[in-house]
UniProtKB/TrEMBL annotation:
<protein>
    <submittedName>
        <fullName>Diaminopimelate decarboxylase</fullName>
    </submittedName>
</protein>
<comment type="similarity">
    <text>Belongs to the Orn/Lys/Arg decarboxylase class-II family.</text>
</comment>
<dbReference type="GO" id="GO:0009089">
    <property type="term" value="P:lysine biosynthetic process via diaminopimelate"/>
</dbReference>
<dbReference type="InterPro" id="IPR022643">
    <property type="entry name" value="De-COase2_C"/>
</dbReference>
<dbReference type="InterPro" id="IPR000183">
    <property type="entry name" value="Orn/DAP/Arg_de-COase"/>
</dbReference>
<feature type="active site" description="Proton donor">
    <location>
        <position position="355"/>
    </location>
</feature>
<dbReference type="Pfam" id="PF02784">
    <property type="entry name" value="Orn_Arg_deC_N"/>
</dbReference>
<feature type="domain" description="Rhodanese">
    <location>
        <begin position="218"/>
        <end position="253"/>
    </location>
</feature>
<feature type="modified residue" description="N6-(pyridoxal phosphate)lysine">
    <location>
        <position position="63"/>
    </location>
</feature>
<dbReference type="InterPro" id="IPR009006">
    <property type="entry name" value="Ala_racemase/Decarboxylase_C"/>
</dbReference>
<dbReference type="InterPro" id="IPR029066">
    <property type="entry name" value="PLP-binding_barrel"/>
</dbReference>
<keyword id="KW-0663">Pyridoxal phosphate</keyword>
<dbReference type="InterPro" id="IPR001763">
    <property type="entry name" value="Rhodanese-like_dom"/>
</dbReference>
<dbReference type="Pfam" id="PF00278">
    <property type="entry name" value="Orn_DAP_Arg_deC"/>
</dbReference>
<dbReference type="InterPro" id="IPR022644">
    <property type="entry name" value="De-COase2_N"/>
</dbReference>
<dbReference type="GO" id="GO:0008836">
    <property type="term" value="F:diaminopimelate decarboxylase activity"/>
</dbReference>
């Protein structure tokens, strides 16, 4: 049986570091446990940079995984950070991020969160509406600081696939038709200056062609808006970079992307080669998705009405993110160690430990001979794994998160959910 993490189909990497020994890690730290491989994070970042025009700024979206060691690795490697809460800012700063290199995005920014970020040096925001812009201006002016912003644009649909976030009715961004009014509002602001456009039309694009179509569409929209008065010092075309989730699969490559973006920029956005505008992208999934593995132990194997169930010590409380986000459940897991005894043809359903029939991680899997005590490794869960799950549901302990680099453990930690008492004031 091949240890997970070994990817015979993935791009060859001569500098590949040793693959983490998941069985040994499960013994050492117990299960359930998440294991993240920093060498894989570094490989993903190299691959992404080689798929983009030289000089493109890469933002790491903490939403995908705010584990401090991962954030620190990406910040050290030169990524900027894309944050959407004061909690994410605190993680980014603790990981060594320069607040001047943080971009604060997202709808529903509160006065408190804006104040928290401004007090810690964040000066770059994506604004989602006139109200959002005026609130930022009020909070910044109240502190006497000048800030820059991008206008998040709900651009025209370019077709393609993936979860669409713009181009139709959406809580995200400003409709194209409303951008001039927003610029009028900006002209009356005291503390905020518009520096460019922000797009984030899809996540996890199904194909390279779909991604290219979407990103080039955003470039065209930005060029169109620049002709109509939108300042364009920064062009953040967002992302949509894909990664496999919770099943074996090689990292995704984008061999055509850099040339396609370069050609589109040359045609539409004069000046970009000299940094006017500066191109930026954002991704969480692509940078960390393939770095993470969930180790889980089989607690019970039972038959019911002709079906076989393996009950695991991890369920949707530890790997539920995409179901919470109404995306597909993970559908397959890959054993770490040889569990084959005798081939049998009964597919195994993987159930978690929670008292709900919805706690299923996989269906009809070929896991011959699976037995209590076996350790399974669910690969490619570095993004939208633990922090996107139903951590508080049924109050099981939170999995340990183990970080490895060069085949060695560099940190291990566990999130603790704690109730704090709040003063009751009449
Ligand atoms: C979620 C999100 C991202 C990151 O998406 P990935 O699929 O993890 O790359 C980036 N930017 C914005 C605005 C987002 O909402």
């Amino acid at each position: 049986m091949t240890p997970t993490g070994d990817r015979p189909d993935g791009p060859a990497d001569p500098a590949a570091a040793p693959v983490p020994d998941h069985v040994a890690l499960a013994r050492r730290f117990g299960t359930p446990a998440y294991v993240y491989d920093l060498d894989e994070v570094a490989r993903s970042l190299r691959e992404l940079r080689s798929s983009l025009p030289t000089g493109t700024r890469v933002y790491y979206s903490l939403k995908a995984n705010p584990l401090p060691a991962l954030v620190a690795a990406l910040v050290t490697a030169g990524c900027h950070t894309e944050i959407t809460s004061s909690g994410e800012l605190d993680v980014a700063l603790a990981a060594g991020a320069d607040p001047a290199h943080c971009l604060y995005t997202g709808p529903g920014k509160t006065t408190d969160a804006l104040g928290h970020c401004l007090d810690r040096g964040v000066r770059f925001f994506s604004v989602e509406s006139g109200t959002d812009l005026r609130r930022l201006d009020t909070v910044a002016a109240g502190r006497g600081v000048a800030v820059d912003c991008l206008v998040r644009v709900n651009g025209a649909a370019a077709g393609g696939s993936g979860l669409r976030m713009t181009g139709t009715a959406s809580q995200f961004g400003v409709d194209l038709a409303d951008v001039p009014a927003l610029l009028d509002t900006a002209a009356r602001c005291h503390a905020v200056t518009v520096r460019g456009a922000h797009f984030f039309p899809i996540t996890n694009a199904a194909t390279e062609d779909a991604l290219v179509a979407e990103l080039c569409g955003s470039i065209r929209t930005a060029a169109w808006l620049r002709e109509r008065g939108l300042p364009l010092e920064v062009l953040d075309i967002g992302g949509g970079f894909a990664a496999p989730y919770a099943r074996p699969g090689p990292p995704v490559g984008y061999p055509k992307l850099a040339d396609a973006l370069t050609a589109e920029l040359d045609e539409r956005v004069a000046g970009w080669r000299d940094g006017g505008p500066r191109l930026a992208v954002e991704t969480g999934r692509y940078l960390v998705g393939t770095s993470g593995t969930l180790l889980t132990t089989v607690l019970d194997v039972k038959e019911s009405h002709g079906r076989r169930f393996a009950v695991l010590d991890a369920g949707i409380n530890h790997l539920g993110g995409l179901s919470g986000l109404r995306r597909l459940l993970p559908t397959s897991a890959q054993p770490v160690q040889a569990v084959a005894k005798e081939a049998d043809d009964v597919g195994v359903d993987l159930a978690g430990p929670l008292c709900t029939p919805l706690d299923m991680l996989g269906h009809g899997l070929a896991l011959p001979g699976i037995s209590p005590g076996d350790v399974l490794a669910i690969p490619n869960v570095g993004a939208y794994g633990l922090s996107a799950s139903l951590l508080g549901f049924l109050s099981h302990p939170v999995p340990t998160e183990v970080v490895v680099a060069g085949g060695r453990v560099v940190s291990a930690s566990r999130i603790e959910l704690r109730r704090e008492h709040v003063p009751v004031v009449d």
